[in-house]
Design a protein that fits this description.
The chain has about 290 residues and is of the alpha+beta class. The protein is built from 5 helices and 12 strands. It is about 25% helix and about 20% strand. Keywords: Signal.
């Protein structure tokens, strides 16, 4: 007895359908036969198959097959098959005169799942949610190839969120500001808290070696003293209020501090020359008195 495609689909979903006073569809025992798409013409059919005969992945020896052929030839579209076995639900399709394509596994709500190809989320709210029935379980996304696991992202039993690479390469965050302890980072890396590090390398240009050029105008100490008396900070160095309000650039501040150290070195050299001149003058006076 033939049924419409709608009847077959409703029956497979567990809905009771009454067509010509029947509530079930018989299953053909074709366990040892591998039919090609040309074997099906405008029909929906259920068969029992050996899993290895139809080459479907999964587990177990037996499987149930649902085949749907919309037309007599390929002008009506492809022939579709669903295979149910202990390893899950699998799907394939094929055109008459061309044969079957590869089996693919359908995603269900339990068990390990494998996707061969791109997986796209669509809709207004797109999310991927991990729910574990056990407290303190690993929940992560792993990236592997034939050489093993390359990287993973997820949470460990101690609730540490980890981004880890295991086979070379780098962890790159492109075109975005990163915030730690802040939800509104204004910089490539914004940290609301303390950073602990063994080394910090800041690249910079315009290093203040110009202080040692012969044409550099070293400020007179009287001018520096007058500036300090008026502003309570060194020339070219931000005031305390400015630093508290806006912070400071480590690279620029290091250059300014080095410039002041270099100027201080020049002042010391000048003072040393003056002291040396005074020492020589005293020696000359002492030698004159002894004559």
């Amino acid at each position: 007895m033939k049924y419409s495609f709608l009847t077959a689909l409703l029956l497979t979903s567990g809905t009771a359908v009454f067509a010509q006073n029947a509530t079930t569809i018989s299953v053909n025992d074709t366990r040892s036969i591998q039919e090609i798409p040309d074997s099906f013409r405008r029909q929906a059919r259920f068969d029992m198959k050996f899993r290895n005969v139809v080459g479907v992945p999964g587990t177990g020896h037996y499987s149930a097959m649902l085949t749907m052929a919309p037309w007599n030839d390929s002008t009506g579209g492809k022939v579709h098959q669903l295979n149910f076995n202990a390893g899950g639900i699998f799907y394939r399709q094929g055109l008459q005169k061309q044969g079957w394509e590869n089996w693919t596994k359908l995603i269900t709500d339990s068990g390990a799942q494998t996707i061969n190809g791109a997986f796209t989320f669509t809709g207004t709210d797109r999310m991927q949610e991990f729910n574990s029935p056990r407290t303190g379980a690993y929940q992560y996304t792993s990236y592997t190839d034939p050489g093993g696991r390359r990287a993973w992202v997820g949470i460990d039993p101690q609730n540490n969120y980890t981004i880890a690479r295991e086979k070379g390469g780098h962890i790159l965050l492109l075109g975005a500001n990163v915030g730690i302890g802040t939800s509104d980072p204004a910089y490539k890396l914004a940290v609301n808290g303390t950073i602990g590090a063994q080394r910090v390398k800041v690249t910079s240009t315009g290093w203040p070696d110009f202080v040692f050029r012969e044409d550099y105008a070293l400020p007179a100490l009287k001018e520096v003293a007058a500036f300090i008396a008026a502003h309570r900070h060194l020339p070219d160095i931000p005031a305390a209020g400015e630093i508290e309000q806006e912070g400071h650039d480590l690279g620029e501040m290091n250059k300014k501090l080095l410039q002041k150290i270099e100027e201080l070195t020049l002042y010391m050299i000048q003072q040393d020359k003056k002291l040396e001149a005074v020492r020589k003058e005293l020696q000359q006076l002492k030698a004159a008195r002894q004559k």
